[in-house]
Each structure stands twice: as C-alpha cells, then as structure tokens.
Amino acid sequence: MGFIWSLIVGGILGALAGSFLGKDVPGGIIGNIVAGFVGSWLGTTLFGAWGPEIGGFYIVPALVGAVILIFILSFLLRSMKK
C-alpha cells in the first residue's frame, strides 16, 4: 500500500508543479509521477529534508524540485524544437 501511496503523491506533486509553471509534463500521468519522484529527489538533495512528509516525500522541497525539473525540461524541449 505504501508504494501506491507514493505513486499518488508523486503524481500530485508533478501535476502541481506543472500547473505552477503553466506547462504540461510530457507523458501525461506517468510523466507527472516521474516528475514528482525525480523532483522530490532533486529538491531533497538541494534543500534538505524539511517540512511535512506525506508518502515518503517532504512536500516543500519535493514541490520546488519538481518545479525546477519541469522548468529545465520545458526549456530543453523548446530549444530542441527550433
């Protein structure tokens, strides 16, 4: 049950990060989950483990990390199209 909870929280974090930036995450729901997981790792690595924890994710650094990840991905994908 913990793994399913982590998938749900990761998907929500990825979707929130995409909505903050006004960008769609490539890959739909799976992309949101991956962005949530990778963003959580990135945010926790950069900012440490602090704030409320839900489903194994520290929400504040995970959300900031997911926003950074989606910003970088959208910048790279936009520059590849040109």
From TrEMBL:
Keyword match Transmembrane: yes
Protein location: Cell membrane
Keyword line: Cell membrane, Membrane, Transmembrane, Transmembrane helix
Family: Belongs to the UPF0410 family.
GO CC, alphabetical: plasma membrane
Main location group: membrane
InterPro entries: Transgly_assoc
Protein's name according to its UniProt entry: Uncharacterized membrane protein YeaQ/YmgE, transglycosylase-associated protein family
Record-annotated membrane-spanning stretches: 6-22, 29-50, 56-77
Membrane topology reported for the UniProt record: Multi-pass membrane protein
Stretch forming the signal peptide: none
